[in-house]
Amino acid sequence: MTRGPWHVAVLMGGWSAERPVSLSSGEGVAKALESRGHKVTRIDMDRNVAARLAETRADVIFNALHGVPGEDGTVQGMMDLMGLTYTHSGLATSVIAIDKQLTKQALVPHGIPMPGGQIVESESLFAADPLPRPYVLKPVNEGSSVGVAIVTAEGNYGNPIARDSVGPWQDFPELLAEPYIRGRELTTAVLGDEALLVTELRPKSGFYDFDAKYTDGMTEHVCPADLPPEITEACKAIALRAHQLLGCQGASRADFRWDDTQGIEGLFLLEVNTQPGMTPLSLVPEQAAKLGIDYATLVETIVEEALNRAGGSTDG
């Protein structure tokens, strides 16, 4: 595969809760590609996106969307129908990975450790807790910790949860309830067929929610994480295995919780993100940089993988 120059359409924005993050990711990608001499067309996704992609006639689409509909298979299916080449995972993988319950059904039978849990009607939470406290409530198909609530005995949601308390039950008719896993927040990036490093995320306050992820200074990134070697290797092995089992392409990111009082038995995969962020605070670029892969090279690697997968190369 030659290194171009290519014409890349960077698809970003959209209307999910993660729109600002996607715009930041997309602009970073676009500037990196331009710095390497590639032609870039920026597309802020709207309802006319199919026509705009067709008009652009790019060699490849860099999918920098986050959340629904850019990460759940909807946009992937559209691009498949149009015969377009695009980065990251395809339709089936995206449908499964965005849905935390489907991800469990795909991975747990293969020995991937994930928390137990159940889907609950939000209305039922106002009558009784679905699990012993503490437990976690999260939307089934949102990323970036959007809408996550930790329900504790000492919390201010009420017992049972009060209908007028602020939480994801006000925005989503169904939620996934999981046992709360105490301990440390870890994440591992996968690029192609290689797990990169393990990062520990230490929020300055609270937990690693949307604001902690994307507000500079709110979370300390320890990369590589200071962990026992067997935990580091387990994170990398599980992340790569999950990436392969789900059929991920390009880059993915596996998020873990580790109860360090339980050793290897306390390590649980929470989710696999098929459209990991590419912002200045994002974890995949950070891990790549620690391994000597600069940002522009990382972007080119992801684009080149998509072109190789499509079976073609472009020289202008």
From TrEMBL:
Protein's recorded name: D-alanine--D-alanine ligase
Family: Belongs to the D-alanine--D-alanine ligase family.
Coiled coil location: none
Entry cofactors: Mn(2+); Mg(2+)
Domain of life: Bacteria
Organism: Sphingobium cupriresistens LL01
GO BP: cell wall organization; peptidoglycan biosynthetic process; regulation of cell shape
UniProt-recorded Gene Ontology molecular function terms: ATP binding; D-alanine-D-alanine ligase activity; metal ion binding
Keyword Transferase: no
GO cellular component: cytoplasm
Binding positions (Mg(2+) 1): 255, 271
Keywords tagged on the record: ATP-binding, Cell shape, Cell wall biogenesis/degradation, Cytoplasm, Ligase, Magnesium, Manganese, Metal-binding, Nucleotide-binding, Peptidoglycan synthesis
Keyword Cell wall biogenesis/degradation part of the UniProt annotation: yes
Pfam family for this entry, one: Dala_Dala_lig_N
Co-factor binding comment: Binds 2 magnesium or manganese ions per subunit.
Catalytic reaction annotation: 2 D-alanine + ATP = D-alanyl-D-alanine + ADP + phosphate + H(+)
NCBIfam families: D_ala_D_alaTIGR (TIGR01205), PRK01372.1 (NF002378)
Active site: 18, 144, 282
UniProt binding sites for Mg(2+) 2: 271, 273
Broad class of where this protein is predominantly found: cytoplasm
